UniProtKB/TrEMBL annotation:
Originating organism: Pandion haliaetus
Keywords: Membrane, Transmembrane, Transmembrane helix
InterPro entries per UniProt: MFS, MFS_dom, MFS_trans_sf, Proton-linked_MCT
Lineage of origin: Eukaryota, Metazoa, Chordata, Craniata, Vertebrata
Region annotation (Disordered) ranges: 1-23
Compartments in which it is found: Membrane
Protein name: MOT14 protein
Membrane topology classification: Multi-pass membrane protein
Transmembrane segments: 33-55, 75-96, 103-121, 127-148, 160-180, 192-210, 322-344, 359-377, 389-409, 415-436, 448-467, 479-497
Amino acid sequence: MYASREDIGCDFGDDSEVGSKPVKPNPNIDGGWAWMIVLSSFLVHILIMGSQMALGILNMEWLEEFSQSRGLTAWVSSLSMGITLIVGPFIGLFISMCGCRKTAIIGGILNALGWILSAYASNVHYLFLTFGVTAGIGSGMVYLPAVVMVGQYFQKRRALAQGLSTTGTGFGAFLMTALLKYLCIEFGWRNAMFIQGAISLNLCVCGALMRPLSPKDVVSEKYVERSNHEDNQAKALSHSAETIRSNGVLSEEPEKKEAATNEEVLDSVQHIEIGGKSRSGRKMYGLRILKTVSQLTVTVRKGFAIWYSSYFGAASLFTNRVFVAFIIWALFAYSSFVIPFIHLPEIVKQYNLSSQNNIFPLTSIIAIVHIFGKVILGIISDLPCISTWNVFLMANFTLVTCILTLPLMQTYVSLAVVCALIGFSSGYFSLMPVVTEDLVGTKHLANAYGIIICANGISALFGPPFAGWIYDITHKYDFSFYISGLLYMVGIIFLLIQPCIQKKQPREKSTEEAQV
């Protein structure tokens, strides 16, 4: 079972001093500009995740153009999807140093550059570098800030907000599939990628909308009450919280000393600058540069300290055992969702269902139902009597069942039904940031979610090429779905076992104390 962060007490810091001074809630939390953040995140999901879900169209074009094996060609799509997520922990470092807005704008430029350069590809290996690596890194630099900003701006309706923003993936998959198909027919796949690169520049606009919260606003978030509907389940993860607290929290004294030292450096620079007003303008310019460099150094050191302590410090995220189980689940989960998107067009052609699929593509069915799945699951999870964790697990069980039964369906109607269930159950993606934030807190959301999507990226990186490799050997996709589904089930079992262990450990501890 699962409990919220407030119930668990699983915050990585001690807020007892701050708690004595209530702060007036910011009107932008759960309202106001928060909905602009949702809009920005929604558009990011359309342009990034939606485009990646539509890569099956380009994958068929690359197969015809370069005449390579399905396994090798699938690496282009896998690299793009995988690197977008794998770079998550490193993007967390960028966010710690320069914030979500700047990170997203730089990522938007890099993503557009990757699409445009890919239009001039002469072979598959060229696409590995331009589309897989360049566009993939750019996508990651926009995607993580889009998720983190929604988590910062929402407290009471966090699941609903994440659900609404991530529905952009479903809309994007539907729109981008139709768009790329039209562009490839009318202009060819090279011009289609060039046009898509121009469209991707809108990611910079989305990044500009990510207005950061001031430090006071971030503190005030802690006083916004979140529903306590999971109180009866808090014991399930109490051991994780105790483990984190026993291992220590981020030391505040070194930070204070470092801050004092940095302030002394800046004050000395400012004093020199004031005293040098009578000197030449060239010296004044040099002092301003020195001051800027000093401020930049302070920012980089603070950002790196927060990033490093989250992974390797005393309060490392890896001391939370349930979070570690969550990572193991993520390593197997995402490929089961990606494989159908990449290889369904080929499966449809293999079953001679192209005429029916052209009328209403199966990937579009997944995308449309995926939209409703995210919103509905988000609304259900925000209900007072419903556990977010239980909704998350039920959706996972439904998805893995669909993946295992998909190879048994060989008619368009049966495939459409299974694809609809895949689309709805995969709506649990909107709950992933909520579950992550409940485990580690808002302060560590960027780094923690970066780890989760990194694990998802590894899954997405090897899933489609593995499916293509199995097809090259057996000339069937059946074994690909069976193996990925079984691995997915292993990840779900880890999620089920860990809370049970957490329940037993307090009892064992009390028994030992009684014997003593």
